[in-house]
Design goal:
The chain is α+β, with helices and mostly antiparallel strands and about 525 residues long. The protein is built from 22 helices and 11 strands. It is elongated and about 90 Å long.
């Protein structure tokens, strides 16, 4: 056999233990896990759409339109080009993508179950899956259309093969391909490195196993490099898209900012929501009496240490970073055989998961859907537009990506951008989906993080409110009873909204009708007021 001489440490542990979870009927675990997985399906249609889901989708459309110029962390577009054929504009496309994310979450759950079964037994492994599903933010964000669910499913599956497989040629290739794809989807995949090293140490005494694992790692890097070169050569390069510079800036911003616990509020909330699951994982450490189990359990928990310095530890990050450590909950379940403590922890986990699911469903997305419906009614064909994150993914977004990182970079540069952008691209639409934009087109704002005064003035001078978050290029004019002069922001067809007909450049224009106006001076004649 491939294992070290004598019974494998895990086999000895399994033989020595009593029934780990005999006090919990298996049917209850199966029904609970199934129910939480099934609720993710309606949640895909009803849950509020996060800004980075729109941003993620915008990369797909940019790639299809030949506008994608960012090679880093955009390889996923090759797997989602079909979304453009889904009816229902961006809303329907994100719902379809979320259903794919549900499949990736199921892949993650299967990997946790497989690893938990290797370390304990199938029933305890189900408890580990339940612990993951009910831990903080998994139900709300674990199936959002972003890089994290994809990478989590890929990496956890690779880990499960490494921990449980015999690493024959097909499994070596599978681990290499899964790891390479995860790295191409997001460089955050390197945060799982301690977990991979822990599995390597755990199986180090098995004949030829470390060599096979190292071969898989080398293949993964080679496959990732080759696919990245293929992907990047198919993009239109522009200034400011240097791969090395992008990676350095990302590392400096997210990991090397020098701040400890930059997202301590999110971390504290995650701990509170995940408390029953964390109790089980802690008991798993106590149960891991053998050195190899202790090393493995520690390695699976080490990715959590990135929370100390990782700046982007927003709620969506936790389902990604917490998946490995939840495997040790299977060991924890084995520490509570035939005692009332395990059912109490399970009830607490189920209660936490249920409450989180209800809160996520209560957010709703009706306003987002109505906004997109109206935008596509106003503009049946794509037009340039300004917003925070690319909400109208089918349209070419103008301006920088207005994340906190993007705003900081913009403020640090100290250069206005919107006046030139409006002059060159003539975007007729602005979506005030971030407070900086909303304040710029209303009363202005001098708070730290606001747009530069020149950009606020340019936006306020260009756009007028239409409905909700929708602002359109135009002018608000008041009749004076005599001819008055005015200029439009730029040339285009403008629709008159007025109770009465007015005269523009000597031509009578009825309310609701459209007129072509260039960027020169025009004459308005309308009754006073």
């Amino acid at each position: 056999m491939l294992l070290e001489s004598g019974p494998d440490v895990v086999q000895r542990f399994q033989l020595a233990r009593q029934d780990t979870s005999g006090s919990v009927p298996d049917i209850i675990l199966t029904v609970s896990v199934t129910a939480f997985l099934l609720v993710l399906l309606p949640m895909s249609f009803l849950r509020n759409i996060n800004w980075d889901e729109f941003y993620f989708l915008s990369h797909v459309h940019a790639w299809l339109d030949g506008r994608l110029n960012q090679p880093v962390q955009t390889f996923f577009v090759h797997g989602f080009g079909w979304l453009a054929q889904v009816p229902g504009h961006e809303f329907g496309q994100i719902v379809a993508a979320r259903l794919v994310m549900v499949a990736f979450l199921m892949l993650t759950c299967h990997a946790i179950w497989r690893m938990g079964s290797r370390l304990a037994d199938p029933q305890a492994a189900k408890i580990a899956v339940l612990a993951f599903l009910c831990s903080g933010f998994v139900l709300a964000h674990g199936t959002s259309f972003r890089a994290d669910p994809i990478t989590t499913g890929l990496l956890m599956t690779a880990l499960s093969i490494l921990l449980t497989g015999r690493m024959h040629a097909l499994q070596i290739l599978s681990v290499a391909l899964l790891s390479a794809l995860a790295l191409l989807v997001t460089v955050k995949s390197v945060l799982y490195l301690p977990a991979f090293l822990g599995v390597l140490v755990f199986r180090r005494r098995e004949e030829t196993m470390p060599a096979r694992m190292l071969i898989a790692g080398g293949l993964a890097l080679g496959i990732a490099a080759g696919l990245y070169l293929w992907h990047s050569t198919g993009l239109t390069a522009t200034d400011g898209t240097d791969t090395g510079a992008d990676l350095r800036e990302a590392a400096e911003t997210t990991l090397l900012s020098g701040n400890l616990l930059p997202r301590w509020n999110e971390i504290l909330l995650w701990v509170l929501l995940s408390l029953p699951a964390l109790v089980l994982t802690a008991m798993g450490f106590a149960r891991a009496w053998a050195s190899r189990l202790i090393i493995l359990a520690t390695a699976l928990a080490l990715p959590l240490l990135w929370l100390i310095a990782y700046r982007n530890a927003f709620p969506y990050f936790f389902p990604f970073i917490s998946a490995p450590v939840m495997v040790t909950a299977a060991l924890g379940a084995g520490r509570l055989p035939n005692t009332p403590r395990l059912p109490i922890l399970l009830v607490a986990m189920i209660t936490s998961g249920t409450c989180q699911g209800l809160v996520a469903l209560s957010e709703g997305n009706a306003v987002q859907r109505a906004t997109l419906d109206e935008v596509h009614r106003l503009f049946p064909e794509p037009v340039p537009y300004i917003d925070q994150h690319g909400m109208v993914a089918e349209f070419p977004k103008q301006g920088f990506f207005m994340s906190t990182w993007g705003i900081e970079s913009y403020r640090k540069a100290g250069k206005p951008v919107f006046a030139a952008l409006i002059s060159e691209a003539h975007p007729p639409l602005l979506l005030a989906t971030r407070w900086q934009l909303a304040q710029a087109v209303t009363d202005g704002d001098s708070r730290p993080g606001a747009l530069l005064p020149e950009d606020q003035a340019a936006l306020k001078d260009t756009y007028i409110h239409y409905a909700g978050a929708i602002w359109l290029a135009g002018r608000e004019l008041a009749g004076a009873g005599v001819a008055t002069s005015f200029r439009m922001p730029f040339a285009g067809r403008y629709r008159l909204e007025s109770e009465l007909a007015v005269t523009i450049d000597g031509r009578l224009v009825a309310p609701g009708s459209a007129a072509w106006l260039d960027g020169n001076h025009h004459s308005l004649e309308a009754p006073s007021g």
